[in-house]
Predict the 3D structure of the following.
Amino acid sequence: MAVKTRQQHINREVSWMAFNERVLQEAADPRNPLIERIRFLGIYSNNMDEFFRVRIASLRRMAQLGTRDLSTLEDDPRKILSQVLDLVKKHQVRYEELFGELEEALRAEGIHLLDVHELSDDQYDFIRDYFQREVRHNLYPVIVSKRTRFPALEDHAIYFMVGLTMKGGSRASQYAVVQIPSDMPRFVVLPPAEGKQYVMFLDDVIRLQLHRIFAPFNAERIEAYIMKITRDAELDIDEDISKSLLQKMASSVDRRKKGHYVRFLYDSDMPKHMVDYVTSCLGVSGNENVIAGGRYHNRKDLMGFPLMGRNDLCFEPRPPLPHPLFRKERQNIFEVLARRDVLLHYPYQQFDHVLNLVRESAIDPHVKSIRINLYRIAENSHIANALMNAVKNGIKVTVVLELQARFDEKNNIRWSKRLQEAGATVLHGVPGLKVHSKLLLITRAENRKSVRYCHVGTGNFHEKTARVYSDVALLTTKKDIAKEVKKVFDFFENNYQRVQYRQLLVSPFNARRRFTELIKNEIDNAKKGLPSGMVLKLNNLVDSTLIKRLYDASQAGVQVQLIVRGVCSLVPGVAGLSENIRVTSIVGRFLEHARIYRFENGGNPLFYLGSADWMTRNLDYRVEVTVPVLDADIKTELDDILRIQLAGNVKARIIDSSLKNKYVPREQGDEVVHSQEELYSYYKAKLESYL
């Protein structure tokens, strides 16, 4: 994907498109099992939906206002919008090609994705009965006419635009809108026959039976075309001081359902007169808003494509391993943490260790309080349930629950109410700041003293995403760190107090300054001839000030190695600017989500991990916490993680100004290093060494 770019900067949105193209590469990669490749198509689609709801919507607002987003280094939003939409169309063509290729590959494996023209008589009878039994009572057609208003379409939903042509008519004279049920399986598995398996989109099941729904119209021809809309996901929070933040957020989430349309996606076979009619009713205009697509939309549902009993077409299981120090069934977690710090690395190791820590705390008579901040949690969160159980056992529980976690607002509002009803103290963040840190602080009475056990991590307290998101977490009782974690929680309760942090890097207070000082230290060491260098692993690198500092480091001779999963606005490898900077991106089975920082520090390396990416929002407008790693064994482990990922040559891509996403080259005879598989083997060997 060759992209025109300034020498010192790649636009954030353009870089994100390159990231999502790497996801599409995974769908194209024949080294991945077939059903997993199909699921990567679903991940790509899901990512694209969110991108339109958030970033495309923001670009359009800025373009309409004639403003420029300072966080993207003064890029003209109109030019960027045009560039991005051109890339969207290019990717859409490749997506459709891949979908067709994978459909053929499924057939070669004896799995047939049927359309309405391929059914045998027995299969038609099965579909008819399934429709009558499971589907029909979930359909509520809306007849569209001059007397009725066109229905408001929901985000995330897909619809049939149905045209009814009466006898003697040349084209549809009556329209109807039918929503495809979202609370039913998107794929219908038919009975196998003659050694073959069959599956069908729910859309086609409904399409086949539309004549039953519209029988009263006695139409000569019924045609149906899929369509969907995407709305602006920005939350407009009112300033009524008489309302609580919880009330404001609940109202804002409801108003999001009526947000402006930013995309109308439709089946390219839909007749022009029908497209014109729908876009006119919706008030959508402009080529950039109206996009012709394939026969099926909401293909994010491909993430749930049925297994069809074919485990050989899926990734081999990689069950999370127990941490060696927690391997015993009746191991007391507090006893382990009292002796030493522990690093957990999901999903290679079990998130259950954190859950067990909270569960044990909830019933431990020595535990006096539990303080935690939650950003995203599961719908049926075991963490939240354990916290409510702690309240029942007389433990003081304080939960800092961020209501503005995008697209999780509704779930967080629900949990906020449940936790409050259970008796927990629930705080809704800090005015003007989004709380994104991953902190847990447990205070326990031991020998007439209060001992603090704390967790500082890179990922959410979310047991479902911990199975696929690669994150690290530090568990420690070190007094200096635990004391400052307590200060962060105190700040949540008393926002007016300014606190100094000597150990932690806390946004928006000292993180930017401390990161800048760490980079400067490497520059100074390089100039003195001392060992210097940086290895930075993060999700996104966008902040212009820190990027300039990294350019300064490169020009001073500091070797900078970056592992950036998503957006990278820095341009590496430019002579006289960034020739000492190398950037790779790993996209594979697990979602790389950890932020780990290594600074050479004259031969005595410093390690940090935390929740903050190097983006302006994370450094200046959110509460983020990054913790220094002081334990020698954990430093070695972090070094090993970075070493393995830097050596990767299977799922690692080169990031440069061309944004072509070339894989890291492997010469003949080079060792094959699949970094995620290597890490699983690394932790498996570490566990076996303890047994």
